[in-house]
Amino acid sequence: MKAVLFFLLASLLTTDATPPQRCNFPPTWTMGADVENYAIDLYATIEVSYDAPNKRFATSGKYKIGKMEERNITTISEKDKYYIIFPTTKKCLVLASEPFETWGVPLNANYAYNYAYGMGTSALRINQWEATMTRFNHSITWGLDATSADCVPVIEDVRLAPEYGMTMSNVFYYDAKPSVVADVFTPAEYCAHVATHSRNDFEVMSLEKELSFSYAMKLI
Description:
Elements: H1 2-12, E1 13-14, E2 28-37, E3 42-51, E4 56-65, E5 71-78, E6 81-86, E7 91-96, E8 110-117, E9 124-135, E10 138-147, E11 153-160, E12 167-177, E13 196-197, H2 210-219
Parallel strand pairs: 7-13
Antiparallel strand pairs: 1-8, 2-3, 2-12, 3-4, 4-5, 5-6, 6-7, 8-9, 9-10, 10-11, 11-12
């Protein structure tokens, strides 16, 4: 019995003798995502659209921060602008966009292990990657679980160093579609004449874009 259990566990969690190559996410896709950011008490259910060939991405969905009321928020990053749009109040913030970076496993990430999601022939093989970096004067660990075959993201998380024992945020992806709808990258008309601000004006931090939502929601 113990031998059978050991075999089952080994089939679910393995460390390959030859680690897989780092990979980029598929060039074009749309996925649902549940976001939990414990650092600022943010919870969101959004749709993410990613279009690497045209160097753009967009998100849209419901965000809840602390005791503040739930808000519908759309973000669009295209060309040289990053839009944070509040459809309900028809207000818009426009920030100078950072240079587009292809999404995927970063060069400083290390392969951790491979596991199966599901059972039998329909199970997905997942690779887990980890990278350590310094943000906000703390050492953090960024983690990514992505499918072995196509590098489709499944889970992303950011954790403080082990001595703090704290997970800062999680993103759970689901319902992948290998296409995007072009309209999601078109800002609302009421954004057309809004002045573009530098990111420093709003203390937008590249690690956690959710922080910009928090600040923006307090402004509106």
